[in-house]
Amino acid sequence: MPDKAKITLDGKTYEYPVIVGTEGEKAIDISALRAETGYITLDNGYGNTGSCQSAITFIDGDKGILRYRGIPIEELAEKSFFIETAYLLMYGELPNSQDFDTFSERLNKSSLIHEEMMNIFAGYPKGAHPMAVLTSVVASLAAFYPVKDNLDPADEEVIIANLMSQIRTIAAVSYKKSIGEPVVYPSNKLKFVENFLNMMFASPVKDYQLDPDVVKALDMFFLLSADHEQNCSTSTVRMAGSSLANIYAVIGAGISALWGKLHGGANQEVIEMLEQIRDTRTSPAAFVDAIKNNKGKLMGFGHRVYKNFDPRAKIIKGLCHSLLKKPGLNDPMFDIALKLEEIALKDDYFLSRKLYPNVDFYSGLILKAAGFPVNMFTVLFAIGRVPGWLAHWREMRHDKNTRINRPRQVYQGPTQRAYVPIEKRK
Ligand code: SDX
Question: How many other CB atoms sit within 10 Å of the CB of residue 70?
């Protein structure tokens, strides 16, 4: 394997080190390129550019492999649960029982939000999108929980517990406020997911009956959403975090990026697409044809990295088969989704572009079956993704190579010209 890459520019040859990852990925370290040659690289959308070296998550897009700290996602989905996997992502190892209890204690201690924060929710108009509320309320945690400049590891642990626990509480409070019901406070007698479901769906006049299958399905959704290496929102967290911005504002930036319909917002788009097909009685085949003819997007399909099946989509599809069999949870939109997948995966338009179902294609069906309103789906994705964002934030802070992220550009604007007084302008 060459440990150097040679680049010849203007008749001169330069050599740059080749970095090889533990899974054999190869990168050319061009950190000295501009200083030595005056050239920069250009890579719209960063499809060929590594922003960092990371030990958290490995994806092989061609083989459909996803591993958190080396453990295959399929094994974690079968044997682990969200909070344990969150610990693995953040600290690099599965917790022993003592570490797990300490972590759980921290999460419980942080489950309440400052009571004065309840006033913030009153300021939002009815019908405000829950992601607009989540983004701003999470960032405003900085006003209620000041963060000192030089955080030590103990400070980091408090922040991590605060964010993991309070984003869940904020989501439930914003939902209750949006439907005009009294807030249900967290209970430390309940585990993380049960606690969230109870805050969402219990009320002073009726207890919420926890369905173990729904709890397991939501826990699995959070686990599968927990990290995905340098995706758009995680890269946003690293970008904002690299300036040493306040961690609550940094996670607020990550939530904002996740909201985009090409990213985490796709889970809401998929359900709305399935509802449109159902309500207009469009045949899935006709819908796919329209997508192809109009060069539209089959939401929940395609991925920048996976050019094969997204392993998370396969797991969630299996979850749909089991959960939606339960009485009262059957959903005809699942059949529509299955038909869309069957048609697309026989169609060269999708196969030639290596477009397969991604994590968002089936996940909305699980969330809908659990009783969540569609406009909360990306909020749920954010709750799942917080451990990944925080793991990358910690890794970046402890990486001696970290510097403020500041990409270059190729300027294509006007060359130098003089100011023209207004009376002389056309
Ligand atoms: C997530 O990065 C991550 O890891 C993200 C994520 C995570 O866990 O963090 O996995 C979560 O965001 C999953 C993706 C959810 N988004 C969607 O489902 C939205 C629909 N998908 C597309 O918008 C698209 O596939 C992206 C955004 C996911 C990827 O975009 P790329 O890599 O920039 O691909 P592209 O837009 O350049 O597409 C290449 C070709 C184009 O056709 P041509 O110009 O070659 O003719 O494929 C076509 C695109 O038009 N195409 C699609 C399509 N996605 C791409 N055509 C139809 N339906 C689609 N869904």
Answer: 12
Q: pLDDT of 315-360, one tens digit each? A: 999 999 999 999 999 999 999 999 999 999 999 999 999 999 999 9
Cβ contact 239:400 at 8 Å = no
Ligand 1 centroid vs 303 CA: distance in angstroms? 5
> 0.85 exceeded by the pTM?
yes
- 359 ligand 1 Cβ < 6 A: yes
DSSP code per residue over 287-353: HHHHHHHTT---TTB--SS-SS--HHHHHHHHHHHHHTTSTTT--HHHHHHHHHHHHHTT-HHHHHT
Round to whole Å and give the CA distance between 189 and 167.
19
**253-294 tens-digit pLDDT:** 999 999 999 999 999 999 999 999 999 999 999 999 999 999
- Amino acid 295: pLDDT: 86
Q: In this structure, how many other beta carbons lie within 10 angstroms of the beta carbon of residue 419?
A: 5
Rounded to an integer, what distance in angstroms lies between the CA atom of residue 76 and that of residue 387?
Answer: 15
Domains assigned to the chain: 4-65 (2.20.28), 81-259 (1.10.580.10), 266-369 (1.10.230.10)
Output the residue whose Cα is nearest ligand 1's atom 42.
353
Active site residue 360: yes
- Whether residue 303 lies in the annotated active site: yes
Residue 262 CA to ligand 1 center (angstroms) comes to 7
Query: Is 303's C-beta closer than 6 angstroms to any atom of ligand 1?
Result: yes
CA 18 to chain centre: 30
Residue nearest to atom 40 of ligand 1 (CA): 353
Extract the residue ranges of the chain whose pLDDT is less than 50. Answer: none
For residue 15, which phi and psi values (nearest 5 degrees)?
-120, 140
